[in-house]
Specification:
The complex is a heterodimer of chains A (392) and B (138).
Chain A: E1 7-14, H1 25-40, E2 49-54, H2 61-67, E3 75-80, H3 86-98, E4 105-112, H4 124-130, H5 137-142, H6 150-165, H7 169-183, H8 197-202, E5 205-208, E6 210-211, E7 220-228, H9 230-234, E8 241-250, H10 271-282, E9 291-293, H11 299-308, H12 317-322, H13 339-342, H14 349-360, E10 373-378, E11 384-391
Parallel strand pairs in A: 2-3, 2-4, 9-10
Antiparallel strand pairs in A: 1-7, 1-8, 4-7, 5-6, 8-11, 10-11
Chain B: H1 16-23, E1 28-32, E2 38-39, E3 54-58, E4 62-71, H2 77-80, E5 85-92, E6 99-104, E7 117-126, E8 129-136
Antiparallel strand pairs in B: 1-2, 1-3, 4-5, 4-7, 5-6, 7-8
The chains are: A alpha/beta (392), B mainly beta (138).
Bound molecules: zinc ion.
Zinc ion binds at residues 32, 34-35, 37, 46, 48-49, 51 of chain B.
Pfam families (chain B): OB_ChsH2_C, zf-ChsH2
Domain ChsH2 C-terminal OB-fold (chain B): 56-123
InterPro entries (chain B): ChsH2_C (IPR002878), ChsH2_Znr (IPR022002), NA-bd_OB-fold (IPR012340), Thioester_dehydratase-like (IPR052513)
Chain lengths: 392, 138
């Protein structure tokens, strides 16, 4: 009883994920875009829409439009945004296709996140402020209180969850170990060495309650997706993946990109407000999902969003992962490529690529049998984010 | 070698009264002229009733620890030099849900607890800058 999909994913592309690409972000973006075009069996001249998001660490759609010598650009969007836009960028492309603005839209994210601008690095507040993501208030009140790194913001959110729901580092470890287990069977993942609970405990504290391994990787690389109409997608090279529903929104009083000082409940996230509408729009129940790719900039982000989207009850995450329910072969496999924690940090767009691979049946050793419906989220269990429901 | 200094705030016309208050060793917040509620960070409108009228008001700056982290490793050299330290969020006693980012001092890092009562003190970090710090109420 699914409604008509608003659009379809007809092509996916990615580059090698590394710590030092030795290449420009322009070269990375182009390689991923060309791979997506070729995957769909299209010509570059068919592309008439481009969407991307960055914090000034990528190349704009104008550069890619020029490098692809596009005859005409009918729709573009360059969002100054964090990973909360990963699914939103795909939704933007889908809306452009559904409303006739463009016919073949590439969505890409390219970054030298390890060898270039590091999001985990110093002066991240300044980066957010310069790109209008922070208001002028946040840096002066956070920086002067020694809160300058994303890990610190998210650790403050995690602590609220620990206070409210009794979450522990054992629960965070279960998330990290599940993601790592999945990365082992992913040839493009950056971290493929198994992680034991003892490995987790030995990882240095960075901002308690977070160890280093509670934080996502920093990566050089790019991903791209080609979005077109469901009808057009059926004529192209690969089995189409339907975009059944999408959301891009926020909880009340969402001022502040990570620690939101006005948020009514810091142990909740945007999913609590937007999740029901997402599933209703897709015409499916949560139990229908074959898998979920949950934005994991930090281990806690997985817990907060799974609760927010109603996939588990608050406080259940640790048992869920320890019981193997989140593993491939389990009740609801989570982050089947290893996620941002163990595959790579391509700012969340790699989660959409993996979801597409799973729904096509192209995921190799980590393939979920009969994968039909998948949830992808983008946001770190803060007050803003985006999400998609994709179907075979 | 240049002496590393802590980051100093870059006040705007909106936030200047807060920092001026700190130099007087006072926490000064906007209070809505219509609904009477305090707010922080400074905003051009009341996030509770939308009113754009407010009065800067000195408060009795006591509160409790709402959230906290122990910063063990920072990529910012000036903060690394202070590590480990407690960074946190204080919920002010004058109004439920009124939060302010904070550093908690005079407290062993492993003994901070949710709900721990704290009061403000101030640290002069450079010639023209005074910032709030928070310490356990003894
Ligand atoms: Zn008011």
């Amino acid at each position: 009883m699914n409604p008509k999909p608003m659009a379809a994913i007809a092509g996916i592309g990615w580059t090698e994920y590394s710590r030092k690409s030795g290449r420009t972000v322009e070269a990375l973006a182009l390689e991923a875009c060309w791979n997506a075009i070729n995957d769909a069996g299209l010509d570059a001249a068919d592309i008439d829409g481009l969407v991307s998001y960055s914090l000034g660490d990528s190349v704009t759609t104008a550069v890619i439009a020029t490098d692809l010598a596009l005859p005409q650009l009918n729709h573009f969007a360059d969002f100054a945004a964090g990973g909360n836009m990963a699914c939103g960028a795909v939704l933007q492309a889908a809306m452009a296709v559904a409303t006739g603005q463009a016919s073949h839209v590439l969505v890409y994210r390219a970054l030298n996140g390890a060898s270039g601008v590091r999001y985990g690095g110093a002066e991240f507040s300044r980066l957010l402020a310069e790109h209008g993501v922070h208001s002028d208030s946040e840096p002066q009140f956070l920086d002067t209180a020694g809160i300058t790194m994303p890990a610190q913001h998210f650790a403050l959110l995690c602590r609220r969850h620990m206070i409210k729901h009794g979450t522990t580092n054992r629960d965070l470890a279960a998330v990290a170990m599940t993601c790592r287990q999945h990365a082992i069977d992913n040839p493009r993942a950056m971290m493929r060495k198994p992680m034991t609970e003892s490995d987790y405990d030995k990882s240095p504290w960075i901002a308690e309650p977070f160890h280093v391994v509670d934080c996502c990787l920093q990566s050089d690389g790019a991903c791209a997706l080609l979005i077109t109409s469901p009808e057009r997608a059926r004529d192209l090279a690969k089995p189409p993946v339907s975009i059944l529903a999408g959301i891009l929104g926020a909880s009340p009083s969402n001022r502040g990109a990570m620690w939101g000082n006005f948020s009514p409940d810091h142990a909740e996230c945007y999913g609590r407000y937007l999740g029901d509408r997402l599933f209703r729009q897709a015409g499916i129940e949560r139990a229908d999902l074959s898998f979920a790719q949950i934005y994991d900039c930090f281990t806690y982000s997985v817990i907060g969003q799974m609760e927010g989207f109603g996939l588990i009850e608050p406080g259940e995450a640790g048992d869920f992962f320890r019981s193997g329910h989140g593993s491939i072969g389990g009740r609801l496999p989570i982050n089947t490529a290893g996620g941002l924690l163990s595959e790579a940090y391509i700012h969340g767009l790699n989660h959409v690529v993996e979801a597409t691979s799973q729904l096509r049946g192209e995921a190799g050793k980590r393939q979920i049998r009969d994968a039909e419906l998948g949830l992808v989220t983008a946001g770190g269990a803060t007050s803003t984010g985006s999400a998609l429901i994709l179907g075979r | 070698m240049q002496h590393a200094t802590l980051p100093h705030p870059v006040p705007t016309p909106l936030s200047q009264p807060f920092w001026d208050g700190c130099r007087r060793r006072q926490i000064t917040l906007q209070r809505c002229d219509d609904c009477g509620r305090f707010r922080f960070y400074p905003c051009e409108a009341c996030p509770y009733c939308r009113s754009r009228d407010c009065t800067w008001t000195e408060i009795d700056a006591r509160g409790t620890v709402y959230s906290w982290i122990i910063v063990r490793r920072s990529v910012d050299a000036v903060w690394q030099a202070r590590a480990p330290y407690i960074a946190g969020i204080i919920e002010l006693d004058i109004q439920k849900g009124l939060l302010i980012p904070a550093i908690v001092i005079d407290c062993p890092v492993d003994s901070v607890r949710a709900g721990m009562p704290v009061e403000v003190t101030f640290e002069q970090t450079d010639a023209s800058t005074v910032v709030p710090r928070w310490r356990p109420v003894s």
